[in-house]
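Working notes for the structural subgroup meeting. M.R. asked for a predicted model of this chain before we commit to crystallization trials. I am recording the input and output together here so anyone reviewing the notebook later can reproduce the run.

Input as submitted:
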Amino acid sequence: MKSKVTGLILAGGRGTRMGRVDKGLQPFRGTTLVEHVMRRLAPQAAAVVINANRNLPQYQAVAGEAPVLPDYLDGFEGPLAGLQIGLQYCPTELLLTAPCDSPFLPADLAERLHAAMLAQDADVALAVTMESEDGGEPQRQLHPVFALLRASLLPQLDAYLATGARRMESWYKSLRVAEVMFDDADAFRNINTLAELQQHERTSTPTPPVAAAAPAAVAAVAAGAGPAGERDAMSVTEAQRIICERMTPIAATETLSLRAALDRVLAEDIVSPINVPAYDNSAMDGYALRGADLPAAGAPDATFKVIGIAYAGRPCTQAPQAGECIRIMTGAAIPPGCDSVLPQELAAHIGADTVTIAHGAIRPGANRRFAGEDLKAGGIALAKGKILRPADLGLVASLGIGEVAVQRKLRVAFFSTGDELRSLGDSLDEGCVYDSNRYTLFGMLTRLGCEIIDMGIVRDDPAALEAALREASAQADAIITSGGVSEGAADYTRDILARIGDVAFWKLAMRPGRPLAFGQIQTEAGNAWLFGLPGNPVAVMVSFYMFARPALLRMMGAQSSLPMMQARCAEAIRKRPGRTEYQRGIISAGAGGEPQVRLTGAQGSGILRSMTEANCIVVLREAQASVAAGEMVDVLLFDGLV
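Returned structure, recorded in token form:
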């Protein structure tokens, strides 16, 4: 049963009754509340994940390698929003939920809920206790956040949340529910206030020590480690995971002639109809002979009579006998009976119709390329998802294939937002700037091979923004915007997207590019994925490369790995732990020929000139601190980005 269950700890609230401090991170009996719950759930599930909307680095420190999942819905929409992201993630058949402020939950919770679910053929099983208030008669108390659900319920939950409803009890009424009575009501007790926390600190039994987290991680959480501005921000890796998990390749394909398919994504494997090479052939210009005729150790040089010549495309059908050989050119078929080729430069002597060979010049079987050595008939020459480069066209042509099936081009609409923006050719009023982001996005999307739809500049006006998003969703597979996603600018944007889409606004633990919006626009005319990037020019490029690019490639059905390498720092780089930083760099050869990198100078997110001077991005991971001169760092090369 355990292998079928993923545990989900609900920690996504505002913590209002704890003085707006996250309940899960409150210290309790030597660790935190959320870790007590993790210890209780760990023996009952194949894996445990945390749903949280603030202080994500601290929760991640407790979770270790387990994911920390923010709500897909924005705005602290309650336990059902946490349940939604849990079901979206859930890799198992069942999801077991528990709140972060209940450190005494039963050790047999999953087992008993599972048994009732099977016995009653239920969609969900809930815990129930008998409780009384002020000495009155005991009453049945349902605990909807202590539940075991089928992961297949996600579509029903999505539809329920789409109506604007948020009550967990109301949603459960639409399902087949099994209620399971537990005798120990205290096991389901929530710790809601600091006074209750202090009372339980003095009187409660500690949680059994099951798979405790590392002391350093617990200390970091208790102390609120990490920069203050990043404590409620999502990590880069978590945002990348969530985005790419939701992406699937577009289904439409087309068949193109080989020359028209350059830079397109293969929709099917290219299977070789022939052996490559098609026949055994010579790797060198020289003399084909029988390996058994080569002179043995201590024997005098052997002289062979040349009885014929083999050219590429004109094979020699003569079969040499002992003491005979065939003059052969590179690529020519190996003559009958021959198995070795002596390169002409290794001959001891070459006469008019003879060649002399010394012992040890070659070994038997040398310089012979076998049929199918590169690729056997029926083998995969190029795999589905490969972006066809010039060498790939040559390989496909060598197989005699003139047409290939490729993915339809991805259609991407993009626009900039802001009343201060002006298009090229317009007069530049005071306080205004020319819109550079659309040209940067045009270049990046064109190099990626997308079919692009430039929608210009959209004013800071709710009606104009909604109209642009509706128009874009009717034409495109994806929409990329720049600007309008910072906390101050996003208020009306959130309201619009709540009506016509399912979009989350995130604060990311990264620099540059802290704000990001991601989700799906859903209108009567069509659906499109939305990537709302920041407005600063450098932040647009970095956010595109780190989030939009891999997602778009995934939609194209292509591989999306980034061309990362390491280089030695030519200078010290200041960095504080708790966020990922992308700094513009110039990579060159050091004194010993190894790669070295230096920064371009000021790293402000509005300094687009720094991107034109750079040939790489220096990637400083979230946990990294300052880098000393001479240390190795990860570097992302611009030349490898398409």
